[in-house]
Amino acid sequence: VSALAQTMSLVFGESHEACSRALMERKWKPASGRRPFRAWYVDTLANPFARYPKQVAPAVLLAKAAESKFSLRASVPSYREGLRVGWYRERLSLSDEVARSTAHELRARTGFALGHQCFWTGPLEELASATRALDALLKTLHAAIVTSDADVCRAVADAVRAWVDALSKGSERWLCDRDLASTLRGLRGLAEAFDAALRADRAQVMSFARDNPWYLGTWGVPVHFALFARHAP
């Protein structure tokens, strides 16, 4: 929403908040409760931490914590592998904990970005292209949020399409709680919305924001929380 609103602001000369409100109008009403839109906007889209130039990837955070002998205790979304079966008294080494959590986060990262379960069940080496495509998309989205550059905004649409192409390969390996084909159609609609905004086609952008089922039902996981404690050997 923030990157698309930034693109609209650049093209139409309106404030980022006004463009965000237009994009969120139909999506906001059933989910807002009593919270004013501006309060959500200030906390989420205008939050300076969301625009901070350096974002820390979970794998890096886990590794850095381990260097200081801290291990993960809990996180939202969950970085911890929850499917492991073993003796309840067995304690893993800190390096094994980090390796397992890092692998789990890689498999779950697509779901973190989409805001619903989308877990890779195949070999990790076959996930590399989708991981690279998602990382490139996130970097491009962040660049679009903090700059007013049409070329950067255009690059977002290309990055979304590249991610869709990567997700389409080996689609039977994704374990999702929503239809993956519908999700990919929604993502293609997002790329088309960026294209429409850049050519000043407000009607198509608003059609996406009002009528695209994937967009209306997706919130993502923009903020992660993690709790660490000193590792007991």
What is the radius of gyration?
A: 19 Å
Percent of residues in helical segments?
55-70%
- Can you write the helix and strand succession as a string? HHHHEHEHHEHHHE
Biggest β-sheet, characterized? 2 strands, antiparallel
Distance between the termini: 44 Å
Shape assignment: globular
Number of strands: 4
Q: How do the strands of the widest beta sheet line up side by side?
A: 1-4
Count of DSSP H/I helices: 10
Structural class: mainly alpha
Mean pLDDT metric: 90
Unreliable stretches covering 5 or more consecutive residues? none
Beta-strand portion reads: 5-15%
Q: What does this protein structure show overall?
A:
The chain is mainly alpha-helical. It contains 10 helices and 4 strands; from the N terminus they run H-H-H-H-E-H-E-H-H-E-H-H-H-E. It has helices spanning 2-12, 16-28, 37-43, 58-67, 94-114, 128-146, 150-168, 180-198, 202-211, 213-216, and strands at residues 70-76, 118-120, 174-176, 225-230. It has a two-stranded antiparallel ribbon with strand order 1-4. The chain has a two-stranded antiparallel ribbon with strand order 2-3. Helix 1 packs across helix 6, helix 4 packs antiparallel against helix 5 and helix 6 runs antiparallel to helix 7. The mean pLDDT is 90.
Identify the notable features of this structure and list them briefly.
4 strands; mainly alpha; two-stranded antiparallel sheet; two-stranded antiparallel ribbon; 57% helix; 233 residues; 10 helices
